[in-house]
Amino acid sequence: MDLFAQLELMPGVVSRVFASLPAESWRVRSGPFAFVEHCWHLADLEREGFGSRIERLVAEDDPFLPDFDGDKMAAERQYLMLPLDQAIAAFAAARARNVAKLRSITAVQWQRSGRQERVGVVRLAEMPRRMLDHDFAHRNEIADLLADLLPQHAMIAELRNRGPRTSRAA
Fold first, then answer.
1. 78: left (phi over 0), alpha (psi -120 to 50) or beta
2. pTM confidence score
3. Secondary structure letter of residue 162 according to DSSP
4. What distance in Å separates the CA atoms of residue 64 and residue 144, rounded to the nearest whole number?
5. CA angle 165–114–111, rounded 5-degree value
6. Averaged confidence pLDDT in the chain
7. What number of other Cβ atoms are within 10 A of residue 138's Cβ?
8. Is 165 helix (H, G, I), strand (E, B) or coil?
9. Residues 6+ apart with CB under 8 A from 5
10. What gap in Å lies between CA 44 and CA 51, rounded to an integer?
11. CA proximity to 13, closest of 170, 168, 135
12. What per-residue string of b and e applies to 147-168 under the rule 16 or more CB within 10 Å gives b?
């Protein structure tokens, strides 16, 4: 499966967890986030982090790309209080836009680069892998959350993978 197809899977994974998770579990924290916070973080990072970085790397010469502070956003925007279904829809829409944009990138554009705060030089060609690594990290964190809240949940094994164990470095 190619990288773009792998990126297209995550919204469906999140939707399936949502459909299988009792409502009383949506806002219970274990690890870095509650499930609703994971979903809003994914949506906002997809739009304001990855989406913005992709657009700016395509359009600008050597842009400075600010960090996306997920913990700060979760607190300021009160993710824990926001509607979960809206987070999942926002993430799915933003991911679809980003993958479509990435599929349209020309060979020359893939070489474009900028400087990301606290990371250094990043190339547009690195963005799909960074996005996928972030997905893997959240899959693992959501698996940990499910293991704590519902140890017999059917999706725990499916969510686990060999990717990063934490989403802190996105």
1. left
2. 0.93
3. S
4. 34
5. 90
6. 94
7. 27
8. coil
9. none
10. 9
11. 135
12. bebeeebebbeebbeeebeebe
